Amino acid sequence: MPIHVKVLSKEDYSKWVDGKKKEMAAAADDPNKVWELAALVERGEKVYAANCSACHRANGKGAGPIKPVDGSPVVLDADKTKQIAVLLNGQNNGAMPAWKQLSDTEIAAVITYTKNSWSNKTGQLVQPAEVLAARK
Ligand code: HEC
What is each CA distance from 84 to 61, 77, 104, 134, in whole angstroms? Predict the structure, then answer.
């Protein structure tokens, strides 16, 4: 039985690996994926630590003009579209920056994290598809 072996240069191989990694990351962030609460909170904790805690602090209490997210009426509101809008558009002329550069999954995860952390116990879950819908 003939065996065909494809020999790739080191460069071609790393290009191929890079491409595969991107494909996998995109699949992991499929905006139509339906998440369970615990997994979304876990993902959101990482997004919060990377993008939000510098201003809002790890304890969610903010400082000075940086409003707290712990106990925030926007975060606790049953109408989830309110916080989605804050994340996509920012608030108070950019004092709170817009985060539309994050993926739908990252925004859904970080909102879900804030809605279920510290004293916030809403049990609410925002799916990536809800963020995607709000972008239009
Ligand atoms: C550069 C500092 C900064 C960063 C980083 C930041 N925020 Fe904010 N955020 C603010 C400020 C300032 C406000 C208050 C705006 C105002 O005066 O209404 C705010 C307000 C908010 C509000 C509304 C609170 C309320 O009760 O009105 C939410 C929700 C929020 N931020 C979530 C986040 C999340 C989630 C992230 C990370 C993706 C984040 N913020 C990153 C500065 C920041």
Answer: 20, 11, 10, 7
Q: What is the CA(119)–ligand 1 centre distance, in A?
A: 17
Name the closest-CA residue to atom 10, ligand 1: 96
pLDDT digits 0-9 by tens, 107-119: 999 999 999 999 9
* Residue 41: how many other CB atoms lie within 10 Å: 20
128 pLDDT more than 80: yes
Distance 66 CA to ligand 1 centre (A): 6
Q: Of all protein residues, whose CA lies closest to atom 16 belonging to ligand 1? A: 92
